[in-house]
Structure formats: structure tokens, C-alpha cells
Design a protein that fits this description.
488 residues; mainly alpha; 85% helix
């Protein structure tokens, strides 16, 4: 069994490469959005958001948890991958065909009738996403996180180039749809090459009987998680219009790329790492506490910083016509901050074989979300987001109580983990607020640069005093990984 230090090194290294891939692709995506926001309108972004929301749900339905099954089932890895590939393709054909036929109903209930053709076009992507998840599972099983960065960057670059060229050629919302499809093809080919696995298909009864129950559990969790993550898009599409959905989609893109991406990157390393020590509860608790400190030290200042610079950031990135996005971004950062703190409890529950905790809490969230939306949408899109914040707090607290009962991870661990990052973030807010109050910025670009620099420096300074070990760990990691990046 790995020692605590070895396990932490693997988690940090995996999270680093996963986050580097995420940051690289999201920077490319931000550039893409910055260009397209000046060409496309709110309706275009709303239609794109509708199509991608449906695609995310369809992918979760069709994949059958195959990627996670490849990571989890360590016996006969070649046969496991072959069975996973067969299951993913069967699911893609069945679910994709059903979605193609049901597109008019989906569009009328949740979105706009103009989204029918977009939903149908994206349903074809299931034939690409299923095999991709198997190749990703192989790399994740082998903790080969460094290889993951190449397909992600290639896919993002392809989507960006195709999307921008087609947008300037007058394709509207379809510019991003075509870019997304071509990007998925490129990403699949790169994953295939880097995995080193020659794809085969198998329905070996023994392997199927072993991975199918686990895969089905994760499929249910995945579907419910996707519904929970995209319930806001569907509810906004239902209660408002596609233009409002476009504003919300652009606002959420910023919080997702800057804040929640840190949690996603950590999750790629934490699930297999927790799985390796699932039987050693004291080690699992220590590992979770270590990872929570690191995640909070990144997400809390990122969320607070985005709230502070939202006005100049949106004006510089998207342009003056998108000022309606600013208040939505500011409220969404609170949601992202709260969500990030409890995000990786999901990896813990999966690692100990209790994904049912996620299933039932997600069901509860889905039941409550429309009820809360009926009330909160009376105050517009900002009121809707505030309602979702309340729901997030309730579900996170419930999961924490379950984690305390099952593993012993309770309020004491969270208090110890969050103390340093919270105090440093509060000092950063005070420093940036003071500068903004004293200075009178005429240019949004200058205001953005100054506030970012002040926030970064003040947070790092306070963290180095209040949590010197954490600060030293970050600086050491940065030096080590910078050296790794320079290696051939």
C-alpha cells in the first residue's frame, strides 16, 4: 500500500496535470468566447447551451459508467476495456436514436423549437463520447494524467478554430456546434493513440456481470449529477427565454472555467487515489483533509477574486453589450465557492463503494430545484441563482453529515482545512476593496490588471504568514512542475 506521502504526491501530480489540461483548454475556450461574443447574439449562445445541456445528459445515459468501470475493475484490464467499449457503443446507438426522435418534445418542454436540429446533430456525438470515455478510463487507471493534456488541448484548439471561422462566415449558433463535433473527433483519435490500446469489442459474461452493477450505479449517479448540474439551464429555458439562457450560459462559463475547474481537475486524481486506500479509513480521512486544504486554498480566492473583478473582466472579455452578464457572474461566484468546498465528497463516496449517497441526495436536489425555482424566478435571473445557492448549502450539509457517519469526516476537519484559506481570502477582499475605493479607474483594462495583481499578491502574502506549510507546498509544487514541463 502507498504511504501517505507517496499517495499525496500522486494526487498532487495527477491533479496538476489534469488542471493544466483544464486551464489550457479553458483559456482557449475563453479566447473563443471573447471572439464569438462580438459576432454572435444572446439567442445563439442560448441555443448552443440548450444543445450541449441535452448532450451532457445523453452522454451520461449512453456510457453506462464505462470509464469509471475501467478504473475500478483491476482484474483482466484488456477484457474489461473491450466489454466497456461494447457497452458504450450499444448505449450510444440506443440513446442517440431515441434522442433524435424525441428532439421536438425536448425542445418544446425546456428550450426553444429552434433547438430541434441542434439536439439531433449533437446526438450523433454519442458515438464519439462513449469510446473516448473508455480511453480516458485506461489513462486514468494507469494514473497517466500527463498524457491527458494532449487530447484536451487538440480538441479545444480544433473547436475554437472551426467555430471562429464558421461564425465569421455567418453560420450563427451552428458554428459552435460544428466546431464541437469536429473537436470531439480529433480528441477521440488522440486518446486512441495515447492510450496504446487496440480497441476490441467483447460481451464476456463474467466481466459484464462484474462491471455492469457498478457501471449502472455510476450511470444513475452520473445522470442525476448531470441533471443537477444542468437543471439550472433547463429551468431557465423553461421559465425565461433563450436570450436569458444565453446570458446565464456566458456567466456560468466564467465561474465554471475559473473556479469549478479546479475541483474537476482534482477529482480526476482523487477518485483513483481514494480507491487505492478505501479500506484504510484513517488514511482516507487524512488524504481527504489534505486535498480539501489544497482545493479551498485555490477555489476560495478564485471565487472572491472573480466577484471583485467581474465588471471590468466582462467588459474587457465580452464587450460592452454583455453588461447584463456582470451581476449574474457576481452571484454565481458565491454558488461556486460553496459548491467547491463539498465537491469532492462525491469522489469519497464512490471510492468507498457508496455512490448511492450521491444518488439519493441528487434525487432530493432534483425534487427541490423546480419548487425553489417557481418562487425564486419572481426576482429574475439573479433571484433564481440565489435560490440555487440555498439548495446547494442544504445538499452539501446533508452529504457532510453522511460522510461524518460513514468515514468520520465531519465539521472539525472542515474547520481545520478552511481556516487558513478563508482568512487569507478575507484579507485579499479587504486589500482589493481598499484599492478600488481609493483609486478612480477610467479604463476597465487598467482596473482589471491592478485588482488582479493586488489580489494575487495580498492573498499570497497573508497565506505565507497564516499557513506557511501550505504556501511552501504550493511554491515547491510550482517549481517542480515547471521543471517537469521543461523536460522532453
Amino acid at each position: 500500500m502507498l504511504s501517505r506521502q507517496e499517495l499525496n504526491r500522486k494526487i498532487v501530480a495527477g491533479a496538476f496535470w489534469a488542471h493544466l489540461a483544464f486551464v489550457s483548454t479553458k483559456l482557449i475556450a475563453l479566447l473563443n468566447m471573447a471572439v464569438l461574443a462580438r459576432v454572435l447574439g444572446t439567442d445563439d449562445f442560448g441555443l448552443i447551451a440548450a444543445g450541449l445541456t441535452v448532450l451532457a445528459l445523453l452522454e451520461s445515459l449512453s456510457e453506462g459508467g464505462v470509464g469509471a468501470s475501467v478504473v475500478w475493475h483491476r482484474q483482466e484490464p484488456e477484457k474489461t476495456a473491450a466489454v466497456a467499449m461494447a457497452i458504450s457503443l450499444i448505449g450510444a446507438l440506443l440513446i442517440g436514436g431515441a434522442a433524435f426522435l424525441a428532439a421536438p418534445i425536448i425542445s418544446e418542454v425546456f428550450f426553444d423549437h429552434r433547438s430541434v436540429d441542434i439536439i439531433r446533430a449533437l446526438s450523433v456525438c454519442l458515438l464519439l463520447s462513449g469510446p473516448s470515455s473508455v480511453f480516458v478510463g485506461i489513462l486514468q487507471r494507469d494514473l497517466a494524467f500527463r498524457k491527458r493534456i494532449v487530447p484536451e488541448i487538440l480538441k479545444a484548439l480544433t473547436k475554437t478554430m472551426i467555430g471562429i471561422v464558421l461564425a465569421f462566415s455567418g453560420f450563427g449558433a451552428w458554428s459552435l456546434i460544428y466546431g464541437h463535433i469536429v473537436g470531439m473527433v480529433v480528441g477521440l483519435l488522440a486518446l486512441w493513440w495515447l492510450s496504446g490500446w487496440s480497441p476490441r469489442l467483447s460481451l464476456d459474461r463474467k466481466i459484464v456481470s462484474e462491471i455492469l452493477p457498478f457501471g449502472l450505479q455510476l450511470t444513475i449517479v452520473g445522470i442525476l449529477s448531470i441533471l443537477c448540474r444542468n437543471a439550472d439551464y433547463m429551468l431557465i429555458g423553461h421559465f425565461f427565454d433563450v436570450a436569458t439562457l444565453g446570458v446565464y450560459a456566458l456567466a456560468f462559463t466564467l465561474t465554471d472555467q475559473i473556479i469549478l475547474g479546479i475541483c474537476w481537475a482534482a477529482s480526476q486524481a482523487l477518485f483513483p487515489a481514494y480507491g487505492a486506500i478505501q479500506a484504510d479509513l484513517p488514511a482516507l480521512r487524512r488524504s481527504y483533509e489534505d486535498s480539501l486544504v489544497g482545493i479551498a486554498a485555490l477555489t476560495l480566492p478564485a471565487a472572491a477574486g472573480l466577484m471583485i473583478v467581474a465588471d471590468p473582466f466582462v467588459r474587457v472579455l465580452y464587450g460592452e453589450k454583455w453588461t447584463d452578464v456582470i451581476p449574474v457572474v457576481q452571484v454565481l461566484t458565491i454558488y461556486a465557492m460553496l459548491h467547491s468546498i463539498s465537491f469532492n465528497l462525491g469522489d469519497l463516496f464512490k471510492a468507498i463503494g457508496r455512490p448511492s449517497v450521491l444518488t439519493w441526495t441528487n434525487i432530493l436536489s432534483l425534487i427541490l430545484a423546480p419548487m425553489i425555482a417557481i418562487v425564486s424566478t419572481r426576482w429574475g435571473i439573479v433571484g433564481f441563482v440565489i435560490g440555487q445557492i440555498g439548495l446547494t448549502i442544504g445538499i452539501s450539509f446533508l452529504r457532510l453529515k453522511v460522510a461524518e457517519k460513514l468515514v468520520g469526516i465531519g465539521p472539525a476537519i472542515f474547520a481545520r482545512s478552511l481556516k487558513g484559506p478563508l482568512f487569507s481570502t478575507a484579507m485579499m477582499i479587504a486589500a482589493t476593496a481598499g484599492v478600488e475605493h481609493l483609486a478612480h479607474f477610467q479604463s476597465p483594462t487598467i482596473k482589471l490588471v491592478v485588482l488582479v495583481v493586488v489580489g494575487f499578491v495580498s492573498y499570497g502574502l497573508v497565506l505565507s504568514i497564516t499557513s506557511p506549510s501550505l504556501f511552501s507546498a504550493f511554491t515547491a509544487l510550482t517549481r517542480a512542475k515547471r521543471q517537469q514541463l521543461l523536460l522532453p
